[in-house]
From TrEMBL, chain A:
This is ABC transporter permease. CDD domains: TM_PBP2. It comes from the Bacteria. InterPro entries: MetI-like (IPR000515), MetI-like_sf (IPR035906). Residues 55-236 form the ABC transmembrane type-1 domain. The keyword RNA-binding does not apply. Keywords: Cell membrane, Membrane, Transmembrane, Transmembrane helix, Transport. It holds the Pfam family BPD_transp_1. The chain crosses the membrane at residues 6-23, 35-56, 62-82, 94-115, 121-140, 217-235. It is found in: Cell membrane. Coiled coil: none annotated. It is a multi-pass membrane protein.
Automatic annotation (TrEMBL), chain B:
CDD domains: ABC_NrtD_SsuB_transporters. This is ABC transporter ATP-binding protein. SMART domains: AAA. It comes from the Bacteria. Gene3D superfamilies: P-loop containing nucleotide triphosphate hydrolases. Pfam families: ABC_tran. Residues 19-246 form the ABC transporter domain. It comes from Paragemmobacter amnigenus. The keyword ATP-binding applies. Keywords: ATP-binding, Nucleotide-binding, Transport.
Amino acid sequence: MKNRSLYLKLLSAAIVFGAWEIAGRIPVSYAFPTFIDSMLALFRMIFDGSMFVAYGETLRPLVVGVAISAITGIGLGLWIGLSSRFDWLFSPIFIVMQAAPLAALIPILVMVYGIGLTSKVFVVCIMAMPVIVLNTASAVRNTPGSLKEMARSFQARDSDVLLKIILPAASPVIFSGLRLGVSAGFIGAILSELKITPTGVGDIITYSRSIADYPSMYAAIFSIILLAVIFLNLLEKLENVLFEGNNRGYVSD
Amino acid sequence: MSQIKPDARSTVSATDIAVSVRNVSKVYGDVQALKDLSLDFPRGELTSLLGPSGCGKTTLLKIIAGLLPATSGQIEVNGKTVTGPGPDRSFVFQDFALLPWASVIRNVAFGLELRGVAKSEREAIAEKYIREVGLAGFEKKYPHQLSGGMRQRVGLARALSVDAQVLLLDEPFSAVDEQTRRKFQEDLLQLVQNEKKTFIFVTHSIEEAVYVSDQIAILLPRPSRVSEIIRPSSFRDKGVDNIRRDPEYLDIVDRIWASLRSYVE
Ligand SMILES: Nc1ncnc2c1ncn2[C@@H]1O[C@H](COP(=O)(O)OP(=O)(O)OP(=O)(O)O)[C@@H](O)[C@H]1O
Ligand SMILES: [Mg+2]
């Protein structure tokens, strides 16, 4: 079974890359390189070290922003989900944040926080946090009442209800919020490098486009997608370690 | 299944009341669910609460459990007034209320886990009750791998494992088929004998109530009150196989149906 899903993943990767290669060869646009050219550019940048330097820059706001979003996002989400007054106060803020056109906000952020790390971390947080908060809050609110009542009937303390009932019951939805938030955080990190100051991977994209080195540009884009996929898989592993039962399926009634 | 032996359960002295409900009323918004209801539950016996749907059986059970506050009146368990859930009572939920992410053994041990009993100790106790309800070998399974009847046994084992004096069962057999239900009823009789606990049992089924109960309280709507208390006496000691043919059993079933039929449209 495990092998089969691996084969399917490899197969779908092969189809996508094959289509990319063909589209590059036709070519669809003179600015669209083939898969092989892009991979060659990727390996070149890996071996001359420029990729590592770039990721050193890009990962800093990304990791800081995602970590802040995950920790405060889950914390705020729990609070919002548990207290209806808090819900009333804070939910609208995150709903607005989720809908806000980020590109329009960036100039304001730059005006307030300058062009340094702080602004970029903010962009990542604005992208990643709302979905984490809102998912966590709704998961907590939807904890089955009968399970909480059951715990109360055995004189559970409030902390036990939170740790042994609410968190495990909410964890699948919290983790799906985290996955969406992390993906949005990646977008935010690149966006901030394209819109604020060209550094890191954003710089590779901007620079290679300006000199019409399209294989390098696509290699950089590809590498960030690859990194995001790896990160999401790691997150899934973490979920399976923390909440062993989540992959066991659910009682339907 | 062995014979149910005659015992002294049918004679109740006033001091041997495990749970006593005194003038309890419950109002939900504009619905009066219970009005001035009083009822005694003798220690070591099984009392059924029988009545038409919506008459307040679950409400009464949850008030006794301390999960719901009464609007007025009070509950005493072993002479102490109930103010909330306590270690002297445990609840078997109609919808099982099992943790879907936890194995059978963790579910059964969950009540003990919440009380801070060490893991090895609580799992030893849980294993004992898993065997007692006939689920030996399923300790490592998860709830979604069990049938409805097996899930209900997990809920029952969890309630038994905390060793509460009073067991509150809310329609525990409603999710199982007729054959399983009969088996459960026999097991329940055995359990009442072995465990020497006070059972309060909510059911919709007249036959089931008469079959398993030492005392049947018939609740009528609305607002709900106890309309009649019936104590079957003679067929208890005739053995499980003969009860359903006993004239007194059939008589009581008829009598209850006669008083309930006017509430069934
Ligand atoms: N949380 C609630 N809020 C408002 N009304 C309620 C609530 N719970 C129960 N009621 C009302 O109280 C009455 C008694 O409900 P209860 O659940 O105790 O009935 P029941 O005897 O257990 O019924 P059933 O046999 O169908 O389970 C019903 O009329 C119901 O509408
Ligand atoms: Mg009910």
